[in-house]
Design brief:
The structure is a homodimer.
Chain A lengths: L13 E3 L3 E2 L2 H11 L3 H4 L16 H13 L9 E11 L8 E13 L6 E11 L5 E12 L9
Antiparallel strand pairs in A: 1-4, 2-4, 3-6, 4-5, 5-6
Chain lengths: ~150, ~150
């Protein structure tokens, strides 16, 4: 994996991921641990609720989006730390068997106000299902090291 | 669990959760699946990176925040669907053994523009560690059923 520093990111830079499939067992086990609501736990309960069937927790989808991001050609893995997310929106339900991929664009880079060895990289991502329907979009704000900076310890 | 409808929420309403402890093995296994970066995977790699030790993925903390929310006295479980999150911020790292709890306040309720049987409830949450330091804050936007509405199927 290419690891990029602050200076390697530029506004307008595009990146993308491979695909990850979301299976029914993992939808249910994620929900049992983190989001135990009927429409994430039980195919039978699903039809009585908002979504007309079992759907993945939005937080499961958000976590999968993170995995797609780490594995993407953005190249921030191990050199950046998430600071914030702006306006994450769940646009469509994710159902068992859906296969997700991500596309993104860098929208801002600037020096950090709090850490001289770092800068802020902001990027917008959209996660699509196998029908190319957008299921999630979010703006991530990440602290990235400047080239030549040693990561701070402690 | 009390289940509330749109009409049961009011601006200024406070809610809170019990505690969940985050253990080291789960930090690592969550990261292996969703956020495989050195500072979430490996105590030894941690000190060389941003955080000076192993820390939980921000998406793990966000998922735990969802569990705290579902188990809280907000009472939205099974009757609401997340639409969006506004400005989620990770304020401090979460380390192995940290014990998290959540406090929240309803900040807006209004009819939905797209669904007559629903409304929007917006609330701000803060997750605290065992030292009462805020580790995450976020504004959640949720679709809630109106009283007497049948959930839509399909």
């Amino acid at each position: 994996m290419t690891q990029r520093y602050l200076e390697d990111f530029s506004v307008g830079q595009k990146f993308g991921s491979g695909r990850l499939q979301i299976d029914e067992d993992r939808i249910k086990s994620f929900a049992r641990e983190f989001d135990p609501q009927p429409f994430h736990l039980d195919d039978a309960a699903g039809p009585e609720t908002f979504f007309g069937g079992l759907v993945a927790s939005g937080w499961h989808v958000a976590a999968v989006a993170m995995r797609l991001l780490v594995d993407s050609d953005l190249g921030l893995g191990g050199r950046g730390a998430g600071v914030a997310v702006e306006t994450m929106r769940w646009l469509r339900p994710v159902r068992p068997g859906d296969s997700l991929r991500m596309e993104g664009t860098v929208i801002e880079t600037r020096p950090s106000r709090s850490r001289a060895d770092c800068g802020i990289v902001k990027f917008q991502i959209t996660v699509y299902n196998q029908s190319n329907e957008a299921v999630l979009e979010a703006t991530h704000v990440v602290m990235a090291l400047r080239r030549g900076a040693a990561p701070r310890v402690g």
